[in-house]
Specification:
Blueprint (H helix, E strand, L loop, with lengths): L1 H27 L6 E8 L3 E9 L2 E9 L8 H14 L11 H16 L3
């Protein structure tokens, strides 16, 4: 009987902790306000992007305007938006051979996200 009460008490405490953890994680999930935000960054030239935020997270990054060097920019233009969306952050590695363009895209997205906070 006594062991059963102790077991019920432990289960109750465990359930409260699980519920508390769920609430805390749920509240911390949304980093940004939903909407579409524009930003600019500096690569070889100005890079303009739009960032769509959905459910508080980066849902889509679009390169709207750029005048980067032909033959170098393509990997960054193709890969960086997907990397940023996948990680949900601009804290991603740039594309080798297109470092300046990669950094410009990251800067543009970061600037756009400033408006989403």
């Amino acid at each position: 009987m006594k062991g059963e009460k102790i077991m019920k008490k432990h289960i109750s405490i465990l359930l409260v902790l699980v519920l508390l953890a769920t609430v805390l994680v749920g509240c911390g999930g949304a980093k940004y306000k939903d909407g579409t935000y524009n930003g600019e960054g500096k690569g070889m030239d100005t890079i303009k992007v739009s960032v769509e935020v959905k459910d508080g997270k980066i849902a889509k990054v679009t390169i709207d305007e750029e005048n980067e060097s032909e033959g170098y920019k393509e990997p960054a233009i193709e890969e960086m938006p997907g990397k940023i969306v996948e990680k949900g952050s601009t804290d991603v590695d740039g594309v080798s051979g297109a470092t300046v363009t990669s950094n410009g895209i990251k800067e543009a997205v970061a600037n756009a996200l400033e408006s989403a906070k």
